[in-house]
């Protein structure tokens, strides 16, 4: 297991509980008995999900939020490659059906889901995209699901900086009358 991921997830659990933010704790759902990414879900790089991994992740998030997301909601999904669907969005059209990212699994009648995921983004880019795309979207989203921080940690940015950026996003959501939902980082095959 990658210790910075565990540390950020621990902080996220505590922050969300203290500040009454809905949390989707997806780490345990995709981890093996050692706390690493379950090999069945690995795309081959130890970090990104394959088609089965995206399916497991998407179904888990949808199940966790089934009573929270209601018809009429506009849901923004803000994140990095695991929100966008990397590497599935680079493969051919026929294969793409096996690589649907978690926002796809949230879709249902009366619910509008918009994928604002972008591969490689750090939480700095998430803040910028929140203000340049999510906040100004018409009509405005009611809910913003935030899943990010992994790229920051892979770049050895201080965990406190990542936490501060996530807090800025959650607070910006509330200022703009969007309900923030936090998602823990997923396990990786790195120790």
Question: Which SSEs are present, and which pair or pack?
Answer:
Layout lengths: L2 H17 L2 E3 L2 H4 L20 H14 L9 E6 L1 H4 L8 H4 L5 H5 L5 E6 L5 H12 L8 E5 L2 H5 L4 H17 L3 E5 L8
Parallel strand pairs: 1-5, 2-3, 2-4, 4-5
Helix pairs in contact: 7-9
Compact description:
The chain is α/β, with parallel strands linked by helices and 191 residues long. The chain has nine helices and five strands.
Which key features would you list for this structure?
191 residues, alpha/beta, Rossmann fold, five-stranded parallel β-sheet, 9 helices, globular
Average pLDDT works out at 94
Sheet bearing the most strands, described?
A: 5 strands, parallel
> What is the count of β-strands?
5
Supply the number of helical segments: 9
Contiguous uncertain segments of 5+ residues = none
Overall geometric form:
globular
The span between the termini is 4 Å
**Share in helix:** 40-55%
Report on this structure.
The protein has 191 residues and is an alpha/beta fold. It has one domain (3-183): Rossmann fold (3-Layer(aba) Sandwich). The chain has nine helices and five strands. The chain has helices at residues 3-19, 27-30, 51-64, 81-84, 93-96, 102-106, 123-134, 150-154, 159-175, and strands spanning 22-24, 74-79, 112-117, 143-147, 179-183. The chain has a five-stranded parallel β-sheet with strand order 1-5-4-2-3. The radius of gyration is 15 Å and the shape is globular. 42% of the residues are buried.
